[in-house]
Design a protein that fits this description.
Blueprint: H1 11-37, H2 69-72, H3 80-101, H4 103-132, H5 146-159, E1 164-167, E2 172-175, H6 179-194, H7 200-217, E3 219-221, E4 239-241, H8 259-275, H9 284-331
Antiparallel strand pairs: 1-2, 3-4
Helix pairs in contact: 1-3, 1-4, 3-4, 3-5, 4-7, 5-7, 6-7
Keywords: Coiled coil, Membrane, Transmembrane, Transmembrane helix
Membrane topology: Multi-pass membrane protein
GO biological process, one term: retrograde vesicle-mediated transport, Golgi to endoplasmic reticulum
Amino acid sequence: MAHFSWRSTPRSTKFTLTCLFTVSSLILILKIRTRRIAQADPMAPASLSDIVVPFLQLIPRSAIFYPWVFATAIFAEVSFFSFLLSTVVLYIGTGYVEKFWGYREVVKYILLVGVLTNLFTVIVAIVSNIFRGDVAGMDKPLGGGISYLFAFLVVIKRLIPEHNVVLFHGLINFRIKHLPFISLVLVTLWSSIFRTLHPAVPSLLSFFIAYIYLRFFQIANVDPILPVASTNEEGAVSVIRGDGSDAFQLVEFFPGITKPYLSILFNAVYKLSVSLGLVTPFDDDFIEQSNLRAQKLSERLNQANKSIANSVAERRRQVALQVIEDRMNGSS
Protein backbone atom coordinates (compact mmCIF):
# COMPACT_ATOMS: atom_id res chain seq x y z
CA MET A 1 0.00 0.00 0.00
CA ALA A 2 1.30 3.44 -0.95
CA HIS A 3 2.01 5.74 1.95
CA PHE A 4 2.94 9.37 2.36
CA SER A 5 6.63 10.11 2.83
CA TRP A 6 7.87 13.64 3.48
CA ARG A 7 11.37 12.71 2.33
CA SER A 8 10.17 11.62 -1.09
CA THR A 9 7.93 14.66 -1.48
CA PRO A 10 9.05 17.00 -4.31
CA ARG A 11 11.12 19.97 -3.14
CA SER A 12 8.69 22.56 -4.46
CA THR A 13 5.88 20.85 -2.56
CA LYS A 14 7.90 20.92 0.65
CA PHE A 15 8.76 24.59 0.20
CA THR A 16 5.26 25.81 -0.62
CA LEU A 17 3.51 23.71 2.03
CA THR A 18 6.01 24.90 4.63
CA CYS A 19 5.32 28.50 3.62
CA LEU A 20 1.57 27.89 3.75
CA PHE A 21 1.70 26.29 7.19
CA THR A 22 4.14 28.85 8.62
CA VAL A 23 2.38 32.01 7.41
CA SER A 24 -1.14 30.77 8.16
CA SER A 25 -0.14 29.52 11.61
CA LEU A 26 1.58 32.79 12.48
CA ILE A 27 -1.51 34.74 11.48
CA LEU A 28 -3.73 32.52 13.62
CA ILE A 29 -1.40 32.74 16.64
CA LEU A 30 -1.12 36.52 16.37
CA LYS A 31 -4.89 36.88 16.03
CA ILE A 32 -5.49 34.80 19.15
CA ARG A 33 -2.85 36.77 21.04
CA THR A 34 -4.32 40.09 19.93
CA ARG A 35 -7.82 39.10 21.02
CA ARG A 36 -6.61 37.97 24.44
CA ILE A 37 -4.74 41.22 25.00
CA ALA A 38 -7.72 43.33 23.89
CA GLN A 39 -10.42 41.43 25.79
CA ALA A 40 -10.87 44.28 28.26
CA ASP A 41 -11.37 46.80 25.47
CA PRO A 42 -15.07 47.11 24.50
CA MET A 43 -14.06 48.47 21.09
CA ALA A 44 -11.90 45.45 20.30
CA PRO A 45 -12.91 43.11 17.43
CA ALA A 46 -15.44 40.52 18.52
CA SER A 47 -14.11 37.60 16.47
CA LEU A 48 -10.85 36.38 14.99
CA SER A 49 -12.07 37.12 11.47
CA ASP A 50 -12.27 40.82 12.35
CA ILE A 51 -8.62 40.93 13.44
CA VAL A 52 -6.01 41.53 10.75
CA VAL A 53 -2.24 41.12 10.77
CA PRO A 54 -1.09 43.87 8.39
CA PHE A 55 2.56 42.80 8.26
CA LEU A 56 1.59 39.32 7.00
CA GLN A 57 -1.78 39.80 5.31
CA LEU A 58 -2.50 41.88 2.23
CA ILE A 59 -4.40 44.94 3.49
CA PRO A 60 -4.91 47.69 0.86
CA ARG A 61 -4.47 50.50 3.38
CA SER A 62 -1.16 49.28 4.79
CA ALA A 63 0.39 47.18 2.00
CA ILE A 64 2.67 50.03 0.93
CA PHE A 65 4.25 50.09 4.39
CA TYR A 66 4.90 46.31 4.40
CA PRO A 67 5.91 45.50 0.80
CA TRP A 68 6.84 41.91 1.68
CA VAL A 69 3.16 41.11 2.21
CA PHE A 70 2.76 40.82 -1.56
CA ALA A 71 4.72 37.57 -1.14
CA THR A 72 3.56 36.39 2.30
CA ALA A 73 -0.10 36.93 1.39
CA ILE A 74 0.23 34.21 -1.25
CA PHE A 75 0.28 31.69 1.59
CA ALA A 76 -2.02 33.55 4.02
CA GLU A 77 -5.13 31.48 4.70
CA VAL A 78 -7.45 32.39 7.57
CA SER A 79 -10.11 29.68 7.39
CA PHE A 80 -9.82 25.92 7.73
CA PHE A 81 -11.54 25.28 4.39
CA SER A 82 -9.29 27.64 2.42
CA PHE A 83 -6.22 26.23 4.18
CA LEU A 84 -7.26 22.68 3.32
CA LEU A 85 -8.02 23.60 -0.29
CA SER A 86 -4.69 25.39 -0.68
CA THR A 87 -2.88 22.39 0.79
CA VAL A 88 -4.49 20.06 -1.74
CA VAL A 89 -3.83 22.43 -4.66
CA LEU A 90 -0.18 22.92 -3.74
CA TYR A 91 0.44 19.24 -3.03
CA ILE A 92 -1.04 18.05 -6.32
CA GLY A 93 0.00 21.00 -8.48
CA THR A 94 3.63 21.31 -7.45
CA GLY A 95 4.16 17.56 -7.40
CA TYR A 96 2.91 17.20 -10.97
CA VAL A 97 4.45 20.29 -12.55
CA GLU A 98 7.87 19.78 -10.96
CA LYS A 99 8.30 16.64 -13.06
CA PHE A 100 8.34 18.87 -16.14
CA TRP A 101 9.94 22.07 -14.87
CA GLY A 102 12.07 21.27 -11.88
CA TYR A 103 12.05 22.72 -8.38
CA ARG A 104 13.31 26.25 -9.05
CA GLU A 105 10.96 27.06 -11.90
CA VAL A 106 7.88 25.87 -10.00
CA VAL A 107 8.71 28.02 -6.98
CA LYS A 108 9.60 30.97 -9.21
CA TYR A 109 6.32 30.61 -11.10
CA ILE A 110 4.18 30.54 -7.94
CA LEU A 111 5.95 33.53 -6.41
CA LEU A 112 5.97 35.56 -9.63
CA VAL A 113 2.30 35.04 -10.42
CA GLY A 114 1.32 35.47 -6.78
CA VAL A 115 3.24 38.69 -6.17
CA LEU A 116 2.05 40.34 -9.39
CA THR A 117 -1.52 39.20 -8.77
CA ASN A 118 -1.48 40.65 -5.25
CA LEU A 119 0.09 43.90 -6.44
CA PHE A 120 -2.50 44.55 -9.14
CA THR A 121 -5.33 43.34 -6.89
CA VAL A 122 -4.40 45.94 -4.30
CA ILE A 123 -4.29 48.66 -6.96
CA VAL A 124 -7.73 47.67 -8.25
CA ALA A 125 -9.10 47.47 -4.70
CA ILE A 126 -7.78 50.91 -3.75
CA VAL A 127 -9.17 52.55 -6.90
CA SER A 128 -12.51 50.78 -6.47
CA ASN A 129 -12.79 51.71 -2.80
CA ILE A 130 -12.01 55.35 -3.56
CA PHE A 131 -14.66 55.59 -6.28
CA ARG A 132 -17.25 53.79 -4.16
CA GLY A 133 -16.31 55.60 -0.98
CA ASP A 134 -15.85 52.26 0.74
CA VAL A 135 -13.61 53.09 3.69
CA ALA A 136 -14.08 49.68 5.32
CA GLY A 137 -12.88 47.97 2.14
CA MET A 138 -9.42 49.43 2.65
CA ASP A 139 -8.98 47.21 5.71
CA LYS A 140 -10.28 43.94 4.27
CA PRO A 141 -7.54 41.32 3.75
CA LEU A 142 -6.87 40.07 0.24
CA GLY A 143 -4.51 37.46 -1.18
CA GLY A 144 -4.53 33.74 -0.50
CA GLY A 145 -4.24 30.71 -2.73
CA ILE A 146 -6.49 31.98 -5.51
CA SER A 147 -3.39 33.14 -7.41
CA TYR A 148 -1.66 29.77 -7.67
CA LEU A 149 -4.96 27.96 -8.18
CA PHE A 150 -5.45 29.65 -11.54
CA ALA A 151 -1.73 29.57 -12.24
CA PHE A 152 -1.86 25.77 -12.07
CA LEU A 153 -5.02 25.64 -14.18
CA VAL A 154 -3.17 27.46 -16.96
CA VAL A 155 -0.21 25.08 -16.68
CA ILE A 156 -2.40 21.98 -16.76
CA LYS A 157 -4.21 23.33 -19.82
CA ARG A 158 -0.82 23.70 -21.47
CA LEU A 159 0.47 20.24 -20.53
CA ILE A 160 -2.58 17.99 -20.94
CA PRO A 161 -5.30 19.97 -22.76
CA GLU A 162 -7.07 16.90 -24.20
CA HIS A 163 -7.19 14.92 -20.96
CA ASN A 164 -10.74 14.05 -19.89
CA VAL A 165 -11.98 14.46 -16.33
CA VAL A 166 -14.79 12.05 -15.44
CA LEU A 167 -16.65 12.48 -12.16
CA PHE A 168 -19.54 10.64 -10.52
CA HIS A 169 -19.41 7.67 -12.92
CA GLY A 170 -19.60 9.84 -16.02
CA LEU A 171 -22.28 12.24 -14.80
CA ILE A 172 -19.76 15.07 -15.15
CA ASN A 173 -17.34 14.79 -18.06
CA PHE A 174 -15.17 17.58 -19.44
CA ARG A 175 -11.72 18.18 -20.88
CA ILE A 176 -8.93 19.82 -18.93
CA LYS A 177 -8.69 22.64 -21.47
CA HIS A 178 -12.20 23.80 -20.48
CA LEU A 179 -11.46 23.90 -16.74
CA PRO A 180 -9.90 27.41 -16.61
CA PHE A 181 -12.88 28.97 -18.38
CA ILE A 182 -15.38 27.09 -16.20
CA SER A 183 -13.54 28.23 -13.08
CA LEU A 184 -13.43 31.84 -14.25
CA VAL A 185 -17.17 31.80 -14.92
CA LEU A 186 -17.89 30.37 -11.47
CA VAL A 187 -15.80 32.92 -9.56
CA THR A 188 -17.24 35.75 -11.65
CA LEU A 189 -20.78 34.61 -10.85
CA TRP A 190 -19.86 34.39 -7.18
CA SER A 191 -18.52 37.95 -7.15
CA SER A 192 -21.54 39.20 -9.09
CA ILE A 193 -24.02 37.61 -6.70
CA PHE A 194 -22.30 38.90 -3.57
CA ARG A 195 -21.21 42.18 -5.19
CA THR A 196 -17.57 41.86 -4.26
CA LEU A 197 -14.32 42.13 -6.19
CA HIS A 198 -12.99 38.97 -4.59
CA PRO A 199 -12.47 36.33 -5.91
CA ALA A 200 -13.18 37.52 -9.48
CA VAL A 201 -10.46 40.19 -9.72
CA PRO A 202 -7.51 38.13 -8.38
CA SER A 203 -8.71 35.13 -10.38
CA LEU A 204 -8.77 37.03 -13.65
CA LEU A 205 -5.47 38.73 -12.88
CA SER A 206 -3.68 35.50 -11.98
CA PHE A 207 -5.09 33.79 -15.08
CA PHE A 208 -3.79 36.45 -17.46
CA ILE A 209 -0.48 36.94 -15.62
CA ALA A 210 0.19 33.19 -15.68
CA TYR A 211 -0.71 32.97 -19.35
CA ILE A 212 1.41 35.95 -20.39
CA TYR A 213 4.42 34.60 -18.51
CA LEU A 214 4.15 31.12 -20.01
CA ARG A 215 3.33 32.37 -23.49
CA PHE A 216 6.02 35.03 -23.86
CA PHE A 217 8.58 35.00 -21.06
CA GLN A 218 9.22 31.58 -19.55
CA ILE A 219 12.72 30.34 -20.36
CA ALA A 220 13.03 26.60 -20.92
CA ASN A 221 15.49 24.06 -22.24
CA VAL A 222 14.52 22.42 -25.51
CA ASP A 223 14.53 18.70 -26.13
CA PRO A 224 17.60 18.19 -28.35
CA ILE A 225 15.84 15.67 -30.61
CA LEU A 226 13.51 18.40 -31.87
CA PRO A 227 14.44 21.24 -34.24
CA VAL A 228 15.24 24.45 -32.40
CA ALA A 229 15.51 28.07 -33.39
CA SER A 230 19.09 28.40 -32.20
CA THR A 231 21.80 26.16 -30.79
CA ASN A 232 25.02 26.90 -29.02
CA GLU A 233 28.36 26.06 -30.50
CA GLU A 234 28.68 22.76 -28.67
CA GLY A 235 25.32 21.52 -29.89
CA ALA A 236 23.96 21.13 -26.37
CA VAL A 237 20.39 21.73 -25.29
CA SER A 238 19.11 25.07 -26.52
CA VAL A 239 17.17 27.63 -24.54
CA ILE A 240 13.92 29.16 -25.75
CA ARG A 241 11.62 31.85 -24.41
CA GLY A 242 7.87 31.37 -24.41
CA ASP A 243 5.50 28.94 -26.10
CA GLY A 244 4.25 29.84 -29.57
CA SER A 245 2.18 26.71 -30.18
CA ASP A 246 -1.24 27.13 -31.75
CA ALA A 247 -2.86 25.03 -29.02
CA PHE A 248 -1.70 27.51 -26.38
CA GLN A 249 -3.22 30.59 -27.97
CA LEU A 250 -5.28 32.63 -25.53
CA VAL A 251 -8.42 32.14 -27.59
CA GLU A 252 -8.14 28.37 -27.06
CA PHE A 253 -9.13 28.85 -23.42
CA PHE A 254 -12.61 29.99 -24.42
CA PRO A 255 -15.63 28.25 -25.99
CA GLY A 256 -15.66 27.80 -29.75
CA ILE A 257 -18.66 30.06 -30.27
CA THR A 258 -16.73 33.02 -28.87
CA LYS A 259 -13.46 32.43 -30.74
CA PRO A 260 -14.24 34.44 -33.92
CA TYR A 261 -14.98 37.54 -31.84
CA LEU A 262 -12.28 37.09 -29.22
CA SER A 263 -9.65 36.40 -31.88
CA ILE A 264 -10.10 39.91 -33.25
CA LEU A 265 -9.69 41.42 -29.79
CA PHE A 266 -6.74 39.26 -28.75
CA ASN A 267 -4.91 39.77 -32.05
CA ALA A 268 -5.33 43.53 -31.73
CA VAL A 269 -3.92 43.47 -28.19
CA TYR A 270 -1.04 41.25 -29.34
CA LYS A 271 -0.12 43.58 -32.22
CA LEU A 272 -0.29 46.59 -29.93
CA SER A 273 1.95 44.86 -27.37
CA VAL A 274 4.46 44.00 -30.09
CA SER A 275 4.48 47.56 -31.44
CA LEU A 276 5.09 48.89 -27.91
CA GLY A 277 7.94 46.43 -27.42
CA LEU A 278 6.23 44.65 -24.53
CA VAL A 279 6.51 41.20 -26.10
CA THR A 280 8.61 39.62 -28.83
CA PRO A 281 6.63 38.50 -31.88
CA PHE A 282 6.65 34.84 -32.89
CA ASP A 283 7.91 34.00 -36.37
CA ASP A 284 6.61 31.06 -38.41
CA ASP A 285 9.68 28.95 -37.63
CA PHE A 286 9.25 29.35 -33.87
CA ILE A 287 5.52 28.58 -34.06
CA GLU A 288 6.19 25.42 -36.06
CA GLN A 289 8.82 24.27 -33.57
CA SER A 290 6.49 25.02 -30.67
CA ASN A 291 3.78 22.92 -32.32
CA LEU A 292 6.24 20.05 -32.73
CA ARG A 293 7.25 20.26 -29.08
CA ALA A 294 3.62 20.33 -27.97
CA GLN A 295 2.88 17.28 -30.11
CA LYS A 296 5.93 15.46 -28.76
CA LEU A 297 4.92 16.21 -25.17
CA SER A 298 1.37 15.02 -25.83
CA GLU A 299 2.63 11.75 -27.31
CA ARG A 300 4.96 11.23 -24.36
CA LEU A 301 2.18 11.81 -21.83
CA ASN A 302 -0.22 9.54 -23.70
CA GLN A 303 2.39 6.80 -23.71
CA ALA A 304 2.95 7.26 -19.98
CA ASN A 305 -0.80 7.10 -19.31
CA LYS A 306 -1.08 3.90 -21.34
CA SER A 307 1.78 2.35 -19.38
CA ILE A 308 0.10 3.26 -16.10
CA ALA A 309 -3.24 1.88 -17.30
CA ASN A 310 -1.60 -1.37 -18.41
CA SER A 311 0.19 -1.66 -15.08
CA VAL A 312 -3.06 -1.15 -13.16
CA ALA A 313 -4.86 -3.69 -15.35
CA GLU A 314 -2.08 -6.22 -14.79
CA ARG A 315 -2.25 -5.77 -11.01
CA ARG A 316 -6.01 -6.24 -11.08
CA ARG A 317 -5.61 -9.39 -13.15
CA GLN A 318 -3.08 -10.78 -10.68
CA VAL A 319 -5.40 -10.02 -7.76
CA ALA A 320 -8.33 -11.69 -9.54
CA LEU A 321 -6.26 -14.78 -10.28
CA GLN A 322 -5.13 -14.91 -6.66
CA VAL A 323 -8.73 -14.71 -5.44
CA ILE A 324 -9.79 -17.52 -7.79
CA GLU A 325 -6.85 -19.65 -6.69
CA ASP A 326 -7.67 -19.09 -3.01
CA ARG A 327 -11.30 -20.09 -3.59
CA MET A 328 -10.27 -23.25 -5.42
CA ASN A 329 -7.88 -24.20 -2.63
CA GLY A 330 -10.58 -23.52 -0.04
CA SER A 331 -13.18 -25.66 -1.81
CA SER A 332 -10.78 -28.57 -2.15
